[in-house]
Amino acid sequence: MAGLRLSVLDQSPVVSGQEPAAAIRQSLELARHCEALGYDRYWVSEHHNSHAIVGSAPEVLMAAIAATTSRIRIGSAGVMLPHYSALKVAEQFRVLEALAPGRIDLGLGRAPGSDRLTARALNPHAMPGADDFPQQVLDLQSWVEGKPLSAAHPYRAISAQPAGPTSPQIWILGSSDYGAQLAAHFGLPYAFAYFFSDGRGVESALELYRRNYQPSERYPEPRATICVWALAADTHAEAERLVATRDHWRVRFEQGLFGPLVSPEEALAYPYHAGEQARIAQMRASAMIGTGAEVRGLIESEARRLGLDEIVVNTWTHDFAARQRSYALLAEAFQLQGM
């Protein structure tokens, strides 16, 4: 597929034997690496109270990435909006846009990105069960893009500063039909978290999004992407070895056991029972792993099947150098135009 664009989702994963803070520093290094390789966007996630994924403040990390890159788009994937004031998020992203004009993406999510207690601690004044997300998105869009709120809006006299000639791209993120329908209704781009569900539900979500899309001034046509988990190595056997780290983490995560990524050797030596082995086999059946050429074929096949012109790639390895190598091999396989 000529012209298929590749982007990056970085969740700042923690690996055994390192302090969590090292994951943030590696995110900065990986962002510079992926810009040099020719990737289109670099998105960072928001999670709280996690011992495995420690990107808790995407807007802060984005500012640091903006300061050390010059071309690649930088985004949140995403800001969990129900935790926050829409005005405060708008102001944060207006500042980011001032720092890196024309390079900022504001990905919005509705999920808590944490457990209930942590969600409560993040916003103790939120009303339990209340869902103001659609209204928050509308308010945020107006403030971010410098458009007036409705005449009846109680905050119509407020503007989000610093204003400027450009504004962030707003994306709705999700792994269910809800986000797809909301993005379609508001005429906004949509990103499906394919890696979260191993692709389950992607066809339904994209079909709903495209069928119900309401054209907007900025986005007259629907614009969608998916975020996949992929891993490339110099040989297929090496990719199989490296992916054992994620297999172990996923099995433990699905059992409610959270922790840092272990080495491939530790993962391969783990005494899985029959049910766990079956789950790993299921994940491997749909995994996008192999050499750069093999992973390119898998990504292109799914992009073609779903009618997409951009794919976002998420990669975890215990060894940071192997993670960097994976993105380099994909860039080479797709012939990205680096710096």
TrEMBL record:
It comes from the Bacteria. Pfam families: Bac_luciferase. SUPFAM superfamilies: Bacterial luciferase-like. One of its GO terms (molecular function) is oxidoreductase activity, acting on paired donors, with incorporation or reduction of molecular oxygen. GO terms for cellular component: cytosol. CDD domains: Flavin_utilizing_monoxygenases (cd00347). Residues 17-309 form the Luciferase-like domain. To bacterial alkanal monooxygenase alpha and beta chains. This is Luciferase-like monooxygenase. The lineage of its organism: Bacteria, Pseudomonadati, Pseudomonadota, Betaproteobacteria, Burkholderiales.
